[in-house]
């Protein structure tokens, strides 16, 4: 009996030792996994856009000079769904907000809103993909772009969105979660600037300079500093008085003008001519125009002049240079006469794709100057391709 008890006791001891060793090994494995995870968590390149991790269609490229390249498909997905690449000319045209850019493959200069700039990177082709130097086009896409080599993360913020910062005033850690259940994400020291994402009780959700997003107690930070506010574009509904848009007519005063709407007349003052020239007929009859302008001012009506075509779209708006010439001539005339914008009403459109490119490249340049763009529909045009691009779509 005594021997049996001893054997049982020894067996229990052995089992306890085995369990203890197994637990110890499990702890060691967990520690090693965590150490390895911490060591390698920055191996994979990640992209943060407006504090959200995003997935790209193609792996971005970062060259030895820290120039960042995105594929054309990814630029199309993120910023410019109408981006255009002319395979024959090896040129790319991209538009966004108030900017139009023209780049050519392997050329070190680009045009942004008709200004020539030197690129740090170049547009290039590789394995049937087009790669765009997005760091050079930060201004075009209204971006702040930073690459953190330490965290292997590209950090992008829209300059059209509000940004708030605070400075660390006490050494602390940014943690994965607020409260007791958070683990250390990154150590921060006095003087470090953190981007504030939101307030959550006694904590702030923040982004560090490495692009890590986590939580820190509010009392560890200085007062918030608003770096910039959201950019907003307010737009009134529009009232178009077509029956008052003939400059040679004789008019009575308009009754009950709605001050809450943009009240406009749309006289035809500008014409597309041969060789991509703009014919200005604003003051061809000075006395009549003067009477008309005074009548519009007295009735609190704005002149939104119409641009129409005497010549074909295919011959005069086919290339980027032709379209730019027309756009710049129009812009100069509108600013000269202090008009609020342009209404585009073409009688015939024999090349709708060139017409749409013309609109896409005109709107950013006009928006930069605070000029409105309206398009009057005809049977050739697809309303859905103009919605969200121009300020107003008018019916005849």
Question: Would you give an account of this structure?
Answer:
There is one protein chain. The protein has 396 residues and is of the alpha+beta class. It folds into three domains: 46-133, Copper Amine Oxidase, Chain A, domain 1, CATH 3.30.457.10; 162-228, SH3 Domains (SH3 type barrels, Roll); 238-394, Glycosidases (TIM Barrel), CATH 3.20.20. Helix content is 25%, strand content 32%. The protein has six helices and 29 strands. The strands form seven sheets. The chain has a six-stranded mixed beta sheet with strand order 24-23-26-27-28-29, with helices on one face. Strands 5-6-7-8-9 form a five-stranded antiparallel beta sheet, covered by helices on one side. A five-stranded antiparallel beta sheet has the order 19-18-17-14-20, with no helix packed on it. Strand 8 (109-112) and strand 9 form a beta hairpin. Helix 5 (320-337) crosses helix 6 (352-368). It is elongated, with a radius of gyration of 31 Å.
Summarize the structure.
The protein has 396 residues and is of the alpha+beta class. The protein has helices at residues 2-40, 72-78, 286-298, 313-316, 320-337, 352-368; strands at 46-49, 52-54, 61-62, 68-71, 84-86, 91-96, 99-104, 109-112, 115-118, 124-126, 129-133, 143-148, 153-158, 163-167, 172-175, 184-188, 193-200, 203-207, 213-217, 225-228, 238-240, 262-265, 268-272, 278-280, 302-303, 306-309, 341-344, 372-376, 392-394.
């Amino acid at each position: 009996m005594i021997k049996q008890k001893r054997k049982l006791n020894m067996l229990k001891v052995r089992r306890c030792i085995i369990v203890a060793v197994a637990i110890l090994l499990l702890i060691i494995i967990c520690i090693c996994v965590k150490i390895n995870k911490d060591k390698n968590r920055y191996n994979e390149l990640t992209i943060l856009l407006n504090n959200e991790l995003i997935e790209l269609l193609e792996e971005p490229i970062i060259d030895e000079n820290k120039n960042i390249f995105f594929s054309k498909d990814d630029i199309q997905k993120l910023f410019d769904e109408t981006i255009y690449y002319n395979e024959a000319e090896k040129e790319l045209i991209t538009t966004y907000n108030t900017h139009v850019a023209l780049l050519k493959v392997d050329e070190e200069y680009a045009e942004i809103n008709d200004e020539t700039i030197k690129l740090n990177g170049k547009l290039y082709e590789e394995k049937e993909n087009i790669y765009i130097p997005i760091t050079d086009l930060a201004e075009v896409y209204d971006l702040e772009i930073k690459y953190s080599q330490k965290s292997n993360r590209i950090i992008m913020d829209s300059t059209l969105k509000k940004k708030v910062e605070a400075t660390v005033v006490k050494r602390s850690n940014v943690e994965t979660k607020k409260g007791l259940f958070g683990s250390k994400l990154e150590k921060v020291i006095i003087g470090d600037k953190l981007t504030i994402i939101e307030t959550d009780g006694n904590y702030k959700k923040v982004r560090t300079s490495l692009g890590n997003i986590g939580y820190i107690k509010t009392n560890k930070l200085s007062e918030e500093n608003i770096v910039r506010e959201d950019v907003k574009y307010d737009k009134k509904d529009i009232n178009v008085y077509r029956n008052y848009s003939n400059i040679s007519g004789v008019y009575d005063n308009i009754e009950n003008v709605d001050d809450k709407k943009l009240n406009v007349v749309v006289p035809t003052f500008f014409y597309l001519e041969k060789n991509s020239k703009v014919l200005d007929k604003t003051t061809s009859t000075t006395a009549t125009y003067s009477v008309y302008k005074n009548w519009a001012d007295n009735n609190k009506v704005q002149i939104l002049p119409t641009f129409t075509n005497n010549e074909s779209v295919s011959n005069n708006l086919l290339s980027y240079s032709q379209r730019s010439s027309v756009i710049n001539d129009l812009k100069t005339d509108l600013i000269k006469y202090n008009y609020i914008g342009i209404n585009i009403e073409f009688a015939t459109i024999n090349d709708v794709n060139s017409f749409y490119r013309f609109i896409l490249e005109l709107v950013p340049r006009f928006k930069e100057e605070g000029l409105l763009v309206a398009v009057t529909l005809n049977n050739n045009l697809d309303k859905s391709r103009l919605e969200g691009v121009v300020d107003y779509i008018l019916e005849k």
